[in-house]
Structures
1.
Amino acid sequence: MIISSGAFVSDNGRLRGENVAGSVRRLKDLPGLFMDDTAYRSMDPEQIVYEVQLHNSCGSAEGGLLFGTSTVTPGKVGREYFMTKGHFHEIRNRAEYYWGISGKGVLVTMDERRQASTVRIEPGSLHYIPGHAAHRIVNIGDCPLVVGACWLADAGYDYDLLAKEGFSVRIVEENGAPAIWSNK
Ligand code: S6P
Ligand code: ZN
């Protein structure tokens, strides 16, 4: 008998089936992330900023792989586009692949000396994120930004290092177009 794999990726990047779990980050979960706190406090705290779905068949076993998709809602807090929190991996040398599924975005990466780089995410674009690089995605379009990811299961997440100073750049709307602002 030939059986189904048990899990599926839809055209819109949604995962369903066995070993799939999801999480949602709303504005109320992201205090201090956006630069304009007045705008942040004036918005609906229940507004979804992004959702993450994960296919996990191995827990956090060394050598295992995780597969996920992240969907960032279109929107802004003040002039700053909706984005993920961003993180270093807890095991710093763990790399990751991202690829664009739909929507328009920016991948922001930053090394431990706060050197940042930015690259456009579009449907089909492929992005290798080396170890020792914090990473975040930003939705600069009018539709949901959907990004696929694959990474080592033991990588873990370190949000603490970014909690104080954040990334050294921010992606904001300036004259109707995305611009990179320094946040040194
Ligand atoms: C995990 C991978 C993604 C992010 C997701 C949410 O290594 O990079 O699945 O977890 O895009 O971002 P964040 O920064 O809230 O974990
Ligand atoms: Zn990661």
2.
Amino acid sequence: MQTVVLAAGKGTRMGPLTDNAPKPMLPVAGKPLVVHCLEHAIAAGASRLVVVVGHEADSIRTALADRNWDVPVTTVVQDELRGTADAVRTAAPELAAEPFVVLNGDVLYDEASLAELYTSGPAVGSFRVDNPSAYGVLQIEDGRVRGVEEKPADPRSNLVNTGAYVFPAAALDWLAVGESDRGERELTDVLQRTCETAEVTAVPFDRWLDVGRPWELLAANEWKLAELDRRIDGDVSPDADLRGTVVVEAGATVEPGVVIEGPTYVGEGAHVGPNAYVRGSTALGPDSRVGHAVELKNSVVMRDSAVPHLTYLGDSILGRDVNLGAGTAVANLRHDDEPVELTVKGERVSTGRRKFGIVCGDGVKTGINCTLNAGVTLSSGARVGPGETVLRDR
Ligand code: TTP
């Protein structure tokens, strides 16, 4: 079935990681997030893909053009972020007058559930959560979807909207919806109209991850790293010990004395060791460096970043071109054992994680022997002096 993938958003909640890159391009187990979405869609039954891009459109267009796809993939530009219905409207000239699927490009789906959606009539993917009030809750009566209630205080079910839909061809004429209270033209209003004219089913999804905030990028990497197969194409010393599912890309080097536990991904041109301890689930980006006496765990280190010596880094995300000075230590656990909080758009929010370290924007540099507390965000280009203890964002 023809499929529209929405990837025009800014990803403001993912800041500072989206300061210089659109969210769909953030790395998940060695590939941009949006590439996972397209691969899932193709495996599930997409016959052609129209990807709606907007914010930093060129980097997404280039990344998609650089790959070989089994089905035609085109991009269209939404010049202003007017909402998800408007995004699909931008794609409409590329679509045939047939049923179509819409997927959010910043979501990870499991392929079996998505395949189930593709074989359904008008449908919406549903996912069971513990905190439905934070989502669009599906209103279901007699097995039929009647609509979506956004963030209800008193949710009637815990089945939420996954942002994955099968629309009938007629919905192509219903995309010009009015603005919602938050000033956007929403696809859920198109779904509402579909529910009024057709029988819309809820397809239960076994797994689903909306990658909106930094700890969800960590969760996305955990999910996709766990699905890798062991593959060693790089230059690995016979005195290194690679345990379990480890991928070392061509052009990467692993020096003597290194222990890498899977699932771990070592990107092209990355350099690890000597004598480093890399624990899963970790993804090292292209041309990154991890040096002597560094312990790294459950972290994402993006391209060109370096953790060169004597550092502990756990449950953290480093953007591009970050350098941690020798002896930088990162806390990833509160002594009261409460979930670590992080700042999202100016507000402290629970990550829901007992263990979470730091988020560093691009170009951050820390001096020697500094201490970074759990839940600290360092904005792009931030500097930490030698010996400093950083308890708050900067
Ligand atoms: P959102 O999650 O609403 O937006 P976002 O991804 O930009 O994130 P943030 O709120 O942190 O800024 O968007 C849902 C999906 O729809 C996402 O894949 C982006 C896409 N989208 C468009 O393609 N065009 C639009 O006009 C809007 C609002 C979203």
